[in-house]
Amino acid sequence: MSHDEEVSHLLESLIRMVGRANQTVDSLQKRVSQLEWLIRELQFEANRQNLFEATRQNS
Q1: Global pTM?
Q2: Low-confidence ranges of the chain (pLDDT < 50)
Q3: How many angstroms separate the CA atoms of 38 and 50, rounded?
Q4: Nearest 10 degrees: CA dihedral of 46, 52, 58, 59?
Q5: What DSSP line would sit under the chain, residue for residue?
């Protein structure tokens, strides 16, 4: 294998590795977004429940 072929092969391998790393990052970003949404929903529900309880106690 010539020097140019070796460099070409290494470059192709690097491109594949970077592509896989980018896919992993994209997947993790989606999961983080899902978790952030869930946390906001849970906080909203907890705040709503607390408001309901406070209103009920004052009645």
Answers
A1: 0.68
A2: none
A3: 18
A4: -160
A5: --HHHHHHHHHHHHHHHHHHHHHHHHHHHHHHHHHHHHHHHHHHHHHHHHHHHHHHHH-
